[in-house]
Design goal:
With 657 residues, this protein is α/β, with parallel strands linked by helices. It has a domain at 108-142. The strands form five sheets. The protein has a 15-stranded parallel β-sheet. Helix 6 runs antiparallel to helix 7, helix 12 (311-319) runs parallel beside helix 13 and helix 21 (578-588) crosses helix 22. The longest helix has 43 residues, at 612-654. It starts with 7 loop residues before the first helix and ends with a helix. The relative contact order is 0.04.
């Protein structure tokens, strides 16, 4: 006998019947709210069939079709009769047609695209649309957390609580005196006591979505209070189980109780730790504890004050990170012990020794064990040191090294540049990228502009050791003086590196006011069209003021123009006759190529560029317009040619055979 839906749950649990529920039209809303009818369920002596999930108003239509007797014996015959009754009394409501626009907006890829282009306020509003949009919005909203208060937001607002503490102070002046002082302490607590339901909601809905934690310590007591709240609530499980990247700025100096370790676990893959304050013993403990708290790190950045007291803890931590692939560390004055430790890591592929404060390695490298493996997997390296010290680091063969970048802050002599290139050519058989840079502070410009002798300029002989490596794809060198090479030497360089993609030969010397003879003109670009078809960035210091513009015969003799060139760097080159130069460049460049001018060897730009920068900017503007016009005419000519070919074919087909 049929039962009303509102009495069904009570009757089924009392009689333990074999049931198939049927919902009438007026009771479908009641069925939707019943969580116990959400899926196919099996319990002793009871079956509940729900033929479809709660989706698009598609509800199961079922009928009570079993005997009310609790002693009903199940037999194959009775079961077959039951299933026949089920088939006869079950009615499926067809799924209503869904518009194409709605199906499009319900695609997960489109939802993700929309969510990733929304700000945080829009994401919060988007999370309240429906369940599917909420999933997409919350994934983006909680992917990266930059504030500890955001982690505590699901538990309620955080409020400050002030308390007064009295203590007695003894002063020894002319008279012995004691006085009592009061200190106001501020702590932070949740406005309401969190419940177990709040914690389960945070653990299942929000915590698994966090992948990146980016935090800068500003208020140490507040940070400590917020972390203590999280520590008191969470169990032995990971607080953020899917966290992979931690960016932590400024340490508290609490050793093992550092707030950063509240979120650390074995699956964290990247740690970026910055602390520019003075060293203390607790910070060394923190650095050493990285080994046990995050043992599977693959990328580690340590931008700490280069104090020698850090070295024992850092070497101890790095030795125990077998999965480490990339390391960025501040340049200590003596890096020998750290390098000896790192040279044995079998998975280390990138090593960057960089500093924000223009610090460099000042002591030569001295390796303790010359017979052990030496950076067997290293592929990329950056060193902040002089060229002489860099040569000492690269003295042994590094078989997999492909990219080398050396940043110096002093004036390097050509002999040092040649010695470094000789070492690279001998010890790095797979090298393809070399960058020799100069970084200065703009405050010391007056001292840097002291004149140099003409012998200090770089020549082709300086580059001759590395010209033997035909596999070079990127080469960049900065120097106070322009390159002392002519058109013939430029042809030699271009023909030696046929796979070249990027080249910069001291295009931005900062001693341009010193009288030097620049032998290169606008025709210096032409050899790279012939010998380097894949070049994408080219930087040369030229004299575009007095040199003649190449003739049309020289341009027509070339196989093609630049096909992939994107950036043409002229640095601080002199220039005159902007219109004629832009017209010449439009013949050898393709659409999309831009002119880059100015110097990048110091941190803060000034007015030392002179008038040449403005003139090169005008050339860039004219070049873009000329290339756009040429592209338009080429497309028009192509369409006209296709039309004429079509007419000729039609004429030939119409002629009688």
């Amino acid at each position: 006998m049929p039962y009303h839906v509102t009495e069904l749950y009570k009757h089924v649990m009392k009689k333990r019947l074999l049931v198939l529920v049927q919902a009438k039209k007026e009771t479908k809303e009641c069925l939707r709210s019943w969580g116990w009818l959400s899926s196919l369920t099996f319990v002793p002596s009871m079956y509940i069939f729900l033929l479809c999930p709660v989706c698009y108003v598609n509800y199961a239509m079922v009928t009570l079709c079993a005997s009310t007797s609790t002693t009903h014996q199940r037999t194959p015959a009775s079961n077959s009769r039951l299933m026949a009754a089920v088939a006869e009394n079950t009615i499926d409501i067809a799924e209503p047609p869904v518009p194409a626009t709605r199906r499009a907006f319900e695609a997960n890829e489109i939802k993700d695209r929309i969510s990733r282009n929304c700000d945080r306020k829009s994401l919060r509003n988007l999370a309240m649309v429906d369940r599917q949009w909420s999933e997409a919005a919350l994934d983006v909203l909680w992917y990266e957390v930059t504030n500890l208060e955001d982690l505590l937001r699901p538990f309620g607002p955080v409020i400050p609580i002030s308390s007064t503490r009295e203590f007695q102070v003894t002063t020894f002046n002319s008279t012995f005196a004691r006085e009592r002082r009061r200190v106001v302490q501020i702590t932070y607590e949740l406005s309401e006591l969190p419940t177990h339901r709040h914690w389960l909601r945070f653990r299942h809905l929000y915590a698994p979505r966090v992948r990146v934690l980016r935090f800068k310590l500003v208020d140490t007591p507040k940070t400590q209070s917020l972390v203590n709240i999280l520590r008191q609530m969470h169990s032995f499980e990971r607080l953020l189980p899917n966290l992979r990247v931690i960016h932590w700025d400024t340490l508290c100096g609490n050793g093992l109780l550092e707030p950063m370790f509240a979120f650390a676990h074995d699956d964290v893959q990247e740690l970026n730790l910055t602390d520019t304050q003075e060293h203390c013993p607790a910070k060394s403990i923190t650095c050493e504890a990285i080994l046990t708290r995050m043992p599977r790190l693959t990328k580690l950045t340590l931008n700490v004050e280069p104090d020698v007291k850090y070295i024992p803890s850092l070497t101890s931590a790095m030795k125990g990170l077998p999965f480490l692939q990339s390391l960025t560390i501040s340049p200590f004055s003596n890096m020998s012990e750290i390098v000896s430790c790192l040279s044995g890591l079998q998975n280390l592929k990138e090593l960057h020794v960089l500093s924000r404060n223009q610090l460099i390695i000042s002591s030569p490298f001295s390796l303790h064990n010359s017979s052990s493996p030496y950076f067997s997997a290293l592929e990329r390296i950056t060193l902040s040191c002089t060229y002489q010290i860099a040569s000492g680091f690269l003295c042994r063969e590094i078989p997999s090294l492909m990219a080398i970048r050396v940043v110096t802050s002093i004036r390097e002599q050509p002999s040092n540049v040649r010695s470094l290139l000789c070492t690279i050519s001998a010890s790095c058989p797979r090298v393809t990228q070399i960058s020799l840079e100069i970084k200065h502070n703009a405050i010391n410009l007056s001292a840097l502009r002291a004149p140099l002798s003409p012998e200090s300029a770089l020549t082709l002989e300086v580059l001759s050791p590395i010209l033997q490596r035909s596999s070079i794809r990127s080469f960049s060198v900065q120097h106070p003086l322009p390159f002392d090479v002519g058109l013939g030497e430029v042809k030699t360089i271009a023909s030696s590196w046929p796979h070249l993609k990027s080249l910069s030969l001291a295009c931005d010397p900062y001693l341009v006011e010193q009288p030097t003879s620049c032998k290169l003109g606008l025709d210096a670009f032409l050899p790279f069209i012939r010998y380097c078809p894949n070049i994408e960035e080219l930087g040369l210091f030229i004299n575009a003021k007095s040199s003649a513009i190449p003739s049309n015969e020289d341009i027509d003799a070339l196989p093609l123009s630049f096909t992939k060139l994107q950036i043409l760097s002229v640095g601080t080159s002199a220039i005159q006759y902007e219109e004629a130069i832009a017209q010449f460049l439009s013949f050898i460049c393709t659409q999309g190529c831009v002119i880059k001018q100015g110097a990048n060897w110091f941190e803060q730009s000034g007015q030392h560029f002179g008038e040449s920068a403005e003139k090169w900017m005008e050339v860039d503007r004219l070049l873009r317009n000329l290339l756009a016009v040429r592209a338009w005419y080429e497309r028009r000519y192509e369409r006209k040619l296709v039309s004429e070919i079509r007419k000729v074919r039609e004429t030939l087909y119409d002629q009688p055979k």
